[in-house]
Design a protein that fits this description.
Blueprint: E1 4-9, E2 30-31, E3 35-36, H1 38-47, E4 52-56, H2 62-68, E5 82-86, H3 100-106, H4 108-113, E6 118-122, E7 126-127, H5 132-142, E8 146-152, E9 163-166, E10 172-176, E11 186-195, H6 196-208, H7 214-219, E12 228-232, E13 238-239, H8 243-252, H9 256-263, E14 281-282, E15 287-289, E16 292-293, E17 298-299, E18 302-304, E19 307-308, E20 313-314, E21 319-321, E22 324-325, E23 330-331, E24 336-338, E25 340-342, E26 347-348, E27 353-355, E28 362-364
Parallel strand pairs: 1-4, 1-6, 4-5, 8-12, 14-17, 15-18, 16-19, 17-20, 18-21, 19-22, 20-23, 21-24, 22-25, 23-26, 24-27, 25-28
Antiparallel strand pairs: 2-3, 6-11, 7-13, 8-11, 9-10, 9-11
């Protein structure tokens, strides 16, 4: 879709991931054994033939820059189009508290120089594999000003998300923020489609009135004036911006049906940064069941119902159950780990016991020694 520009908006993104985002943006949080959260929406854009993508960074984006690089793994390393990482244009510390419309305005030259007619704006914390080409086509056919993607689900959500209400024709009648009670079952994916000139107009008019938040001000304040329609997404969705939600949706991947829905049902791959590692080494004493084990690991103990990232070493007699162990962690001999999340480079000494619960997993920050 040469007429579509992709925007991944990380400014003021909802984030309650505690230690996992102390030193990184939510977009670069590891997920699923080898991915980062941004990989899902970035891959969806590439698979939908969107070949010009801008990432509006905000804070703590060093690891994100290291991960996405030039965009080569997503086939976005091109001369005329490709991947653009737009850091905040900060002149004063107070400006970091301003909304995303302010940053869109600061980088308005990027939009003016882009030749695309339409813009798809998305967040990074929605784990899904969506065909955005179908969303854009539905937007054009309806003659909508703005199209919002949603999923109808009666299941309780552990992540923070907005909800919408629509009428019989699919027009959005109300947008409900992530806090407060609501009866709506339509979860907003925070994915919007609109013409680029409308976006620029909303940026200018909203800022002129003292408003600087894209969804809360530019969209919600104009829902009666503009033709805003909903588009129902029916694939797998994980709203991952809280620790309980991160743990739940990570564990979901151990379910073959969910893994198939996310990675195979659409026929589109999820791309990530390539890291060449040797195959995992399992010793004769090891035992692994219903787990995702990445390359480069050495397993001497027991691993059940867990996700183990690259380069992890698990010692003899160690028992890892219902846990997430990120890259290059070292688990000593006779360690007991249950319902836990270990960030990268954590070392757990011999004989230690770490135990949490599914709703409140034990969380070890990056490079901690226990």
């Amino acid at each position: 879709m040469k007429q579509v520009l992709g925007v991944i908006n990380l400014v003021n993104e909802l984030d309650d991931l505690e230690e996992l985002t102390y030193n990184r943006t939510i977009a670069s949080v590891p997920f699923g054994g080898r991915y980062r959260l941004i990989d899902f929406i970035l891959s969806s854009m590439v698979n939908s033939d969107i070949h010009s993508v801008a990432v509006f960074a905000h804070t703590k984006y060093r690891s994100l820059m290291d991960h996405i690089g030039s965009g080569r793994e997503w086939d976005l390393a091109r001369k005329r189009s490709g991947l653009f990482l737009l850091p905040p244009a900060v002149e004063e510390v107070q400006e970091m508290l301003k909304g995303d419309l302010y940053y869109f305005h600061k980088h308005r030259d990027f939009f003016y120089r882009s030749s695309q007619e339409y813009v798809v704006i998305a967040r990074s914390h929605m784990v899904c594999n969506i065909n955005l080409k179908e969303v854009v086509n539905a937007h054009i056919e309806r003659g909508a000003d703005i199209t919002m993607v949603y999923q109808q689900s009666g299941e309780p959500q552990l992540g923070k998300c907005r909800r919408i209400e629509t009428d019989a024709e699919g027009r959005v009648t109300d947008i409900l923020d992530h806090f407060g009670p609501t009866n709506s079952e339509k979860i907003s994916l925070d994915i919007f489609v609109m013409r680029k000139d409308l976006l620029l107009d909303l940026v200018e008019t909203s800022l002129a009135k003292g408003y600087d938040h894209f969804t809360r001000n530019a969209i919600m304040n104009n829902r009666e004036r503009l033709k805003i329609y909903g588009y129902a997404y029916k694939g797998y969705l994980g709203v991952v911006n809280t620790i309980p939600a991160y743990f739940k949706h990570s564990m979901d991947l151990l379910n073959p049906d969910i893994w198939t829905r996310l990675f195979y049902d659409t026929g589109n791959q999820i791309y990530t940064k390539i890291k060449d590692e040797p195959p995992c080494h399992y010793t004769e004493q090891s035992h692994v069941a219903n787990s995702l084990i990445a390359n480069g690991c050495r397993i001497e103990g027991e691993v059940e119902n867990s996700i183990v990232f690259r380069g992890v070493k698990i010692g003899k007699g160690a028992k890892i159950r219902n846990s997430i162990v990120m890259q290059n962690c070292v688990i000593g001999e006779d360690v007991s780990l249950e319902n836990a999340i270990l960030d990268k480079d954590v070392t757990v000494g011999r004989g230690s016991t770490l135990k949490g619960s599914p709703n409140a997993p034990f969380l070890a920050p990056k490079r901690k020694r226990i």
